Amino acid sequence: MAFVCQQCKQPLQLDASLVDLAPSAYDMIVGSLPPQLDTHTPPASEAEQLAQLPAPSSVKAAWRSSAHANAARPSTLSPRAQGKLPVRSPPLPNESFVLLQDSVIRNAPPSASSSSPSGNVTNTKSAVNGFKGSTHEPDDHPNPSPLSHHLQSTLRLMNLLSSRTDIDHPLCSECTHLLLSTLTRQLEETKKERDGYIAFEKEVRKEKEREKDGISKESAERRIAQLQEDERIAVEQLRDAEREHEQLAEEMRALELEEEALEEEEDEFWRMHNSHLLKSAEQSSQLAALRAAYAADSATLERLERTNVYNDAFCIGHDGVFGTINGLRLGRVPGVPVEWAEINAAWGQTLLLLYTIARKLDFTFENYRLVPMGSFSRIERTVGDKASYELYGSGDLHLGRLLHNRRFDFAMVAFLDCLKQLTDWAKSQDPSIEFPHQIVKDKIGESSVKLQFSQEEAWTRALRHVLLALKILLKWTTNGSNGVYGHSELSSRGRATGVGSGNSGPSIRQVRAIRAVMNVAEESRCRGLPYALRSERVENGTHSITPVGSFSASPVPSSFSPFCHGLAVSRHTATLGRSKAARRPCQIPRYHSIFEYMGSFEGSDRGRAALGRRGTLAPVEYMVVSFDSESKNAVLSLCQTEILNELQPATDEIEAVTDDSISAPTFHPEYGRYMLESTPGSPYTGSLSSLLSVEANMRYRRNLARKHLKENEVPMTVTSFPRLGAPGTFTQPYYDPADAVSSHSLFLPQEITNAHARFPTLTANIRRRRGSKVAINLPLFIDDRTPRPFVDPTIPWQRNIYPEDPEARNGAALNDHIYMDAMGFGMGCCCLQLTFQSCNVEEARRMYDALIPIGPIMLALTAASPLWRGYIADVDSRWNVIAGSVDDRTEEERGLKPLKDNKFVIPKSRYDSVDLYISEHWMNRPEYNDNPLPYDQSIYDRLRKHGIDDLLSKHISHLFIRDPIVIFSELIDQDDSASTDHFENIQSTNWQTLRFKPPPPNSPIGWRVEFRSMEVQMTDFENAAFAVFIVLLSRAIMSMNLNFYIPISKVDENMRRAQQRDAARSSKFYFRKHVFPPPSSRNTSATSSGAASPIDGVPTFSRHKERRLRNCYPLPPPPEEGIPHGRIEGEYQEYSMNEIINGTGVKFPGLLGLVRDYLTTLDVEAHELRKIEAYLDLVKRRAEGEISHLGFSSVMRQQPCPPGTLKTPATWIREFVRSHPAYKFDSVVSQEINYDLLVAVDEIERGVRRVPDLLPTDYTGGDKDQGALHKKA
Predict the structure, then answer these.
(1) Which residue in 642, 674, 681 sits closest to 748, CA to CA?
(2) Crossing angle of helices 854-861/1020-1040, nearest 10°?
């Protein structure tokens, strides 16, 4: 028994559910079928059918008359044709049937008649429905088989389906699909037909309404004629418009030709202008040199007039119970064993001060003569026995020393007598001067200066009173004139002479020598070394003060001067000191920096003329990695100096053999000895061709560097080296971390740092100022087999070489974290930075503010550093590592201790996010700067008095709460009008997400903004894509006057979220909801030059398009309804990365939408647009990979990106490590994994390895595209 399809006649195999169909299921199917038509009901008559129609009576009457006429009319057909007409007969009784339920059929009694008529019907239907086989088995079989019973049920079901519907059953699946397609098509056609009837009905109703209104045929014809006339007039106007369009097109072509001619004329003008400038510079060089010399001499004279050399030379203060002079303590107390070498040096300075004051006042002591000779000074009697008393002592306990100490007491009493003579004379000259302690014989106040029979506390108190009297006397001597004293004497005398000389004071050179020697003394005191000062008379009669004793200087070269907070040097030796005199040179660069910045601000209009010739700078940093295929190890090559020595002549040769319009690249050293920085020879200009040459220039620089490396060395653009500081060999050649004399690191050797003096000095000074090593703790990525709690076994816990070695075991290294302890971990990273030049200071401030909220977004989108010190971290970005690596804040500045020696509690490291919006534009509401901002009030007041506004003054005074870390000793005194070295020294060591850079002196370069948050990518294609995107976004911001302001606190929160693992897909960020300005502040002047101005949230653009990316956009006016004053909480909300980049709708089209809107204002050629779209598509697909927040299980970690999206480098790197065969799921990145990873990165860059989840499928790579140089501006 088998079934066949009623359409294709192919055998069918019934489903098991039909073979074994339960009675209840059978009943359910039958009940769902349409009811059977009642064939016994007589059909309605024609009159009844006509009566049921919804038609007017007149229409029905017309139909009846027509029907009667047709019935009466004889047929016109021939007999043959009439014979072919179908014969209609009433339905036969045997053609209808009654549906019986299954239960009725089963219980029906057998009858003889059931086998003939009904059997014939059944057989006929069975044949029709595809049933083949014997059908003569009687229904009343006493024991029917189950199979037969179920097949009979199925057959009955098929017959019912065929009878109740228009389709014969059964059907195969293919025929069913065809049938469904046919029925669907018929349904669509029926719908269309229905819609046509509906439309026709509407037209009929309208026609009836018009008839009711009484419109005549004549009116309709007149209306038609009028419409035809209007059509003729419109056609004529269209032809006129087309002719006008052709004329305008011709005029446009003429204007374009004129524009080209003007551009050529402009180029010629600039060439002539530059030639004129060079010629003028050559002709006026001598005059300029004379003026510069005059300005320098005038500035030096003014500085000397303001300088109080006495206060610099003799800094009197206190250190607990001790009085100090130049940092040297004078006295002794139990429990604080001050060395006699320090006491003697302090007495020598005290005697020199008294001698200097007396000579300044032209005062002669009675009975005594002072002989200042450093630590071996003495006082001679000029009457009587003319004895000489030594003003220095010793702690030795023998008879000769006791006699000497008695002479020491005589010397101190004689000193006190001389001090009394001078104070009495001063009182006689000025009765208003008051000294708090009276001098009577050997006592000052109630304490004796004699040591032999006095307690040490009383002796120390007496010496403190002596220093206080000298300080008051010194102030009175200089007459409180703010340092302007004795200029005539200092100008006429170049130096201060020794004993017996008539000159009045020490020279500036001698003062610096004294300060340097004092710092050496302080270093000796701190280290417990013997130290003394000896004053010798040289041939020309001057004083020479030199250190005596065994003292070893620090290995810092002489050209660098770590002055601040315990770091002070002379010109020839670098030593450590912690005195106030040692800290004082910090104020020198800070003081000069203010004047240098004010000079830059006064010339803030510089850069306008040169703007067309300047643009964007995009340096790239490389790590040089050496591969050893035999040991499967990839290490850092510490051959920076040798590589640069080979690259320098290569770039010089390129410059010599190429055309003058070609710009040769340059290479520079970086912090790590394995790092190279390459920059284009000149900035990229505002032209589209120059902007789109970024990728080619990057590839050219990479390949140029590769050609001058060894065969197994590769320049790689990776943010962090995965095994930097891990156990084993990670550098070539290998060095031991035990020799890290500047960082004292447990993991990084000294040789990993650039050998130039700036870098090791910077490293050491951060550690010294902080008072400990830096402590960086990144959360560890906890994998399936990671030990918990994780206590790092690679830390040398028991090392005891440097004083800071116990810090790790004392709590600096946290459990479940990756611990790093040196500046090299952060400053040894690579990043992608962009520098924009602005039209003027106002535009630079607007761009600076607008890019602040973009910083965290781009940090998350370019995240590329999940591996640190041989472990997988639970973060994706470098930011906190660098912030911790240069955090020189003391415990007081970090808020761990109450303020005592420091002035400010500083919330952030030197390397962190921006703290303040600085634009004075009306969009910048005060509420956005909602973070506490410590700043130096004195610097702020000075800037305000100079006319600098509130926000910019706060910005600078906030930067200047930090000390300079490294200072050139040769650059301490310089012309502030010709140099900004002091300002840049502090500015360049405040590393933030953006940097606001003033114009350099004597340069056409204007105000600049440096964008610093992005991480470097593996390929030049990615780096160029993000560079082009940020450049276009900056132009869109300025041209459309976009408003990205959100509170600074939310920017900081975005920075925290941006570093989280997989932040681009799983995190949300605060961003502004409405970025377009209010309608009443729309800037029509901007749009007239090709810019965009949004109208009702949708940007519109002028018809004139430009080929250059413009600067110098005018400021939009404030809204006519006033500046908004509502709550700022409603101005922003949390968005996913996809929403921020790709938009949420018309009100916020996304950053990419804004860029594309800006591109419509430019005259972009087709091939240029294709390249730009390739870059923008990378950004778009990076942002599209949004996933839901499902926790951090192993399944979540391996969740793939949605189809069509691209992963961040950090996500790809983490998944590469976790899928490596050698990975043990213990969070460790082994040497083999590191080797294979870096090999893969190199192959990806060269285009050898395809990674469709990281890069577009059409990416070619560096092997096929060697790059090219770009032309100069």
Answers:
(1) 674
(2) 160
Distance CA(8)–CA(476), nearest Å, equals 123
Terminal Cα-to-Cα distance of the chain (whole angstroms): 90
Structure tokens at 183: 């029925």
Residue 25 to residue 162: CA distance in whole angstroms: 18
CB-based contacts of 1130: which residues, under 8 Å, 6+ apart?
1073
Domain 309-479: CATH superfamily, name plus number: Autophagy protein 6/Beclin 1 (1.10.418.40)
Q: How far apart are CA 1234 and CA 101, in angstroms?
A: 77
Backbone angles phi, psi at 965, to 5 degrees: -95, -40
Share of the chain residues as helix, strand and coil, in percent rounded to the nearest 5 = 45, 10, 40
Other C-beta atoms closer than 10 Å to the C-beta of 108 total: 12
365 closest CA partner among 377, 355, 373: 355
Is cis: bond before 964, omega within 30 of 0? no
SS (H, E, C) 1125-1181: CCCHHHHEEEEEHHHHHHCCCCCCCHHHHHHHHHHCCECCCHHHHHHHHHHHHHHHH
C-alpha distance from residue 198 to each of 58, 201, 383 (Å): 23, 5, 136
Angle, to 10 degrees, between the axis of helix 340-360 and the axis of helix 508-527? 160
- The DSSP code for 1211 is H
User: In a 3-state reduction of DSSP, which class is residue 832?
Assistant: strand
Give the integer Cα–Cα distance in Å for 992 and 915.
9
Share of the chain above pLDDT 70, in %: 74
Residue in the structure block whose two tokens are 């089209």: 1149
The H or E element that residue 317 is part of is strand 316-319
Of residues 903, 889, 887, 736, the one with CA closest to residue 822: 887
Assess contact for 466 and 449: CB atoms under 8 A.
yes
DSSP letter at 684 equals B
Q: What is the mean pLDDT of residues 455-484?
A: 79
d(CA 1220, CA 1039): 49
In Å, what is the CA distance from 759 to each residue of 352, 827, 894, 965?
39, 10, 24, 11
Ordered by start, the domain boundaries in the chain are 309-479
The more confidently predicted of residues 283 and 1031 is 1031
Contacts of 912 (CB under 8 A, 6+ apart): 883, 991, 992, 993
Structure-token match 């418009």, residue found: 241
> What three-state secondary structure class fits 675?
strand
Please give the structure tokens belonging to residue 1092.
């965009």
Contact 143, 149 (CB under 8 A): no
R_g of the chain computed on alpha carbons: 47
pLDDT at 934 over 90: yes
Residues 6+ apart with CB under 8 A from 1090: 1039, 1101, 1102, 1104, 1105, 1106, 1110, 1161, 1162
Could you count the other beta carbons within 10 Å of the beta carbon of residue 1235? 21
How many Cβ atoms are within 10 Å of 138's Cβ, its own excluded?
11
CA distances from 552 to 524, 530, 763 (A): 9, 11, 20
Select from 1244, 1240, 1239 the least CA-distant residue to 1255: 1244
The answer to whether the beta carbons of residues 1146 and 1100 sit under 8 Å apart is: no
Interior angle at CA 108, CA 102 and CA 109, nearest 5? 160
Q: Which tens digits make up the pLDDT trace of 290-343?
A: 887 887 788 788 767 767 778 778 888 888 788 999 889 998 888 787 888 999
Instruction: Count other C-beta atoms under 10 Å from residue 396's C-beta.
Output: 11
Place of tokens 């990076």: 1182
Specify the pLDDT at position 478. Answer: 80
